[in-house]
User: What shape does this take?
Amino acid sequence: MLRHKSYWETLVLCFLCLLFVLERFEGATTVPSEVAALNAILGRWGRTASATSSPAWNISGEPCTGAATDSTDIVNTAFNPGIKCDCSYDNGTTCHITQLDLNQNYLTGPLPAFIGNLTKLQYLAFGTNALSGSIPKELGKLTSLISLSIGTNNFTGPIPLELGNLTNLQKLYINSCGASGEFPSTISGLSSLQELWASDNNFTGKFPDFSRTSLVILRIQGNSFEGPIPSSLSNMTKVTDLRIGDIQNGSSSLAFIRNLSSLSILILRNCRISDIMPSDFSRFTSLQRLDLSFNNLTGQIPQSLFNLSLLSYLFLGNNSLSGSLPTGKSESLLNIDLSYNQLGGSFPSWVSEQNLKINLVANNFVISGSNNSVLASGLNCLQRDIPCNHRAPIYSSFAINCGGNKTITSSDGTLYEIDGRALSSASYYVTETNKWAVSTVGSFQDASNADYTQYSSSQFQKTQEPELYQTARISPSSLRYYGLGLENGNYTVMLHFAETRIPDPPTWKSTGRRIFDIYIQGNLVLKDFDIRAEENSLTAVTRKFIVPVTDNFLEIHFFWAGKGTCCVPDQGYYGSSVSAISVNPDFTPTVSNKPPSSL
Ligand SMILES: *[C@@H]1O[C@H](CO)[C@@H](O)[C@H](O)[C@H]1NC(C)=O
Ligand SMILES: *[C@@H]1O[C@H](CO)[C@@H](O)[C@H](O)[C@H]1NC(C)=O
Ligand SMILES: *[C@@H]1O[C@H](CO)[C@@H](O)[C@H](O)[C@H]1NC(C)=O
Ligand SMILES: *[C@@H]1O[C@H](CO)[C@@H](O)[C@H](O)[C@H]1NC(C)=O
Ligand SMILES: *[C@@H]1O[C@H](CO)[C@@H](O)[C@H](O)[C@H]1NC(C)=O
Ligand SMILES: *[C@@H]1O[C@H](CO)[C@@H](O)[C@H](O)[C@H]1NC(C)=O
Ligand SMILES: *[C@@H]1O[C@H](CO)[C@@H](O)[C@H](O)[C@H]1NC(C)=O
Ligand SMILES: *[C@@H]1O[C@H](CO)[C@@H](O)[C@H](O)[C@H]1NC(C)=O
Ligand SMILES: *[C@@H]1O[C@H](CO)[C@@H](O)[C@H](O)[C@H]1NC(C)=O
Ligand SMILES: *[C@@H]1O[C@H](CO)[C@@H](O)[C@H](O)[C@H]1NC(C)=O
Ligand SMILES: *[C@@H]1O[C@H](CO)[C@@H](O)[C@H](O)[C@H]1NC(C)=O
Ligand SMILES: *[C@@H]1O[C@H](CO)[C@@H](O)[C@H](O)[C@H]1NC(C)=O
Assistant: This one.
């Protein structure tokens, strides 16, 4: 039975309560060494914390007031920089700073070592800035930390071993932070770690063993790790989102994924996996996205994979898969890349389903008769032996306004053709004239509605043809342009680029980096190419290559190798970009360079 409080009891309680609030208001003070450290950190960059009641924080006043102590959530709000305090220490007389958010401020210079004075910090974020110098080992003193974000910065040198002292750490974001060297085993062994983003650094040495962590999310693409991927990762049974990419050497097996049945995203792209494709995927009932492209998988495509009811993106391109396509397919599976394999046989009825995106370029399909109409036209030109006008060349030059709606004639008379087809996750297009073609695979992770072309009406610098740069085709994985039916000989390939979305400094948005590789005729011609490292934003950049055509066929391949930032200025903003291509012979052609007269 509830006992009703007496009048006096209630009054006394209220009075005590009021006293407590008054004391909090008047008396609770932040530990001086923390105030000093906070002032020094913010003052350094001329910043003021706006997590207090007034937007411009009184730097000599008490920081733990207003939004810093009430229920306001400082993360993802307008409070930037923002702090949160816990004033319950010493019976409500002492405040400690528990959260500090300095994300997206374009801070420069080193991160001061006295960050280590904020010893009660649980949440620390200074990602997406331009901080340089080494990552201070004093971060290892912040043993209450639950979440640490230092990603997208300009640091140099290794990740300090001392971060391994952060035994409460659950989330660590060090993607694109500039770090290099071996990945500390003290960190890969943190048992409380649940989420780690470590892509796009220059980590070297053996791929870390994360089997002792509690990882649910691991993103670790675009480094320089040596394979193999340790088989002990089979222990990470809680993982739902696993993205590994760009392993340098040593061949890996796929056996470790067998028991990782909670996965909803599995990306093991460009990992040197040499294995037979597993036949049974039925346990992966949560799987929505599977990318095993750019490996060396052999065997057949298992029907069990095509039966998964949640799987919607499947990328198996650039392996050595053989046999024919599965006869059945779940309704959800609408994006299928099987390009660059050894597949053949006849097409099952599902290939002509509406809304299905499927790329079957560079396989061994024989396209004729009844096969001819079910897929986008021109696939016959893009099989392994490229039969269109093969050994009977008719062309000697072409130019493309990549992603562009209109034909553009440049001042030198070059006609840049329209390339306006909407291509996305697994698509290709061959011109009616069979002169050139384009093929793209990959989907922008974390940006389901991302565009695969870009448009900017800006005035572009350093070019006579600014219109040529207004559109570009962009690709999150692999984008290839082909010249077909070309007379053999040496050609000059001119590639045109301009960065339109990542602005110039000083703004946090300028910390984005788009980095990709370019192969022509299978040879790497540009590695870690960064358009904006060459020129300012909205400025034309061109690259010229002399390449041989020996089999009536030219291939220009734009490839994302996991490098560059993932999420600046927006989530899912990365990958290759090209504005225009022109190809001209270095010899006097003997062919007409005109399509057959029937067209
Ligand atoms: C950090 O704390 C130490 C003592 O704990 C103090 O001597 C030093 O001044 C503090 N540094 C800053 C910048 O507040
Ligand atoms: C800042 O706060 C201190 C005391 O907390 C006060 O004396 C001072 O006048 C304030 N300065 C401004 C500019 O408001
Ligand atoms: C906090 O309060 C408890 C009783 O409520 C008291 O015993 C203790 O001495 C107080 N501590 C401080 C630091 O005031
Ligand atoms: C990054 O740091 C290097 C020196 O380590 C410096 O040359 C470069 O300008 C910095 N970049 C940015 C964007 O701050
Ligand atoms: C922190 O980590 C370093 C390197 O791993 C170690 O030498 C040091 O003893 C650790 N410090 C504490 C207080 O645990
Ligand atoms: C990455 O590290 C390798 C080996 O230490 C070095 O050769 C290379 O220049 C580094 N790359 C970058 C971008 O720092
Ligand atoms: C698997 O994880 C457990 C803790 O969950 C750990 O004790 C064990 O050593 C791990 N096994 C391997 C092979 O890493
Ligand atoms: C998967 O789990 C089963 C049963 O727990 C175990 O016997 C097997 O070794 C595991 N396989 C891998 C690759 O870890
Ligand atoms: C990978 O490369 C490193 C250094 O380049 C070498 O030490 C290592 O033996 C190589 N591993 C394999 C499996 O080839
Ligand atoms: C791929 O695997 C096959 C069979 O194991 C092997 O013959 C071939 O050399 C491998 N290719 C590459 C590029 O590793
Ligand atoms: C390109 O054409 C499509 C329709 O075909 C239109 O929706 C789009 O706005 C055009 N884009 C530009 C940049 O003109
Ligand atoms: C083609 O270009 C290469 C250099 O890229 C040159 O060595 C070769 O002689 C050229 N061939 C012809 C037929 O001009």
The chain has five helices and 38 strands.
